[in-house]
């Protein structure tokens, strides 16, 4: 019933769109910061992944479905999630070269440095891809595939 | 301690409002208050990792809930509730309260946890993994299996939502009802 309205106006008002255009990059950047500094400061892959997913949710809410999916499509989300899962498993399997599953095989480096802690930053990135892709896919499923929007179209 | 109790009282008030609200949107926002209180409580208890995760998960769940409920306007149904059900609810409530009180009397006080396993993690985490943030070290190194399971749960959740909400099967049954039994 509300799909017709959504398709005509495509998102929210000009004020919301302008603010979103300014803020969405900052939100995405903050999410990336949280992920990359997961082994140094509070945060990590899960929290950062949710923040990154939120930035895309922000886009969908403000600009409507069509324009936002030009930025990150549904299949793109699915492949991001799968890539995260495969990457995390690959890191875990790479541990076998050091003896056991999930062994931290990379050099640990110097504490407090961005490139330290062996495989932990890589695992953070994998978890982030997985969580961001997964949550955004759930959001897409709930927003796009609901029965009401189907009846309207 | 006072800050923690204040947050807890606000959370209880939010939960009561969420149950009693006539409007679904108000209830969702009141649930959001509870989640915000929980993340603040984690922050007061010096667990910033938990606080950040709780906060962002709370935001996304409130966004999804608002998007899902904003124009549905479900009517509240109170018929079907009998005095017997009320008694059952009361009995279960009291039982949970009694068990909860006994459990909470066994929990060590805030700031003085039992440190049997975690002692090792805190003492040797930096040396073993090189990660300054001990939470990351535990999640992604010592307890990597748990995180793998968590990722699997998320994957299963996404699969479940997509399977339930996908439009393909529904469209088939609508246009070709005869093929639905195949």
Helix content of chain A: over 70%
Q: In total, how many domains does the architecture of chain A comprise?
A: 1
How far apart the termini of chain B lie comes to 63 Å
* Unreliable residue runs of chain B: 174-182
Shape of chain B: globular
Strand coverage percent of chain A: under 5%
The count of DSSP E runs of length 2 or more, i.e. the number of strands of chain B, is 0
Q: Considering DSSP H and I runs of 4 or more, what fraction of the residues of chain B is helical?
A: over 70%
- Number of helical elements of chain A: 7
Shape of chain A: elongated
Order of helices and strands of chain A: HHHHHHH
Main sheet overview of chain A: none
How many separate structural domains of chain B?
A: 2
Mean pLDDT of chain B: 79
Runs of chain A with pLDDT <50, length 5+?
1-8, 149-153
Mean pLDDT of chain A: 76
What's the alpha carbon Rg of chain A, rounded to whole Å? Answer: 19 Å
Structural class of the secondary structure composition of chain B?
Answer: mainly alpha
The total strand number of chain A stands at: 0
Structural class of chain A: mainly alpha
Structure write-up:
The complex is a heterodimer of chains A (153) and B (182). Chain A is mainly alpha-helical and 153 residues long. Chain A has one domain. Chain A contains 7 helices and no strands. In chain A, helix 3 runs parallel beside helix 6 (120-144). The radius of gyration of chain A is 19 Å and the shape is elongated. In chain A, 39% of the residues are buried. Mean pLDDT of chain A is 76; it is low at 1-8 and 149-153. Chain B folds into 2 domains: 1-74 and 101-112; 115-182, no CATH class. The longest helix of chain B has 24 residues, at 83-106. Chain B is globular. The relative contact order of chain B is 0.05. At the A-B interface, helix 3, helix 5 and helix 6 of A face helix 3, helix 5, helix 6, helix 7 and helix 8 of B.
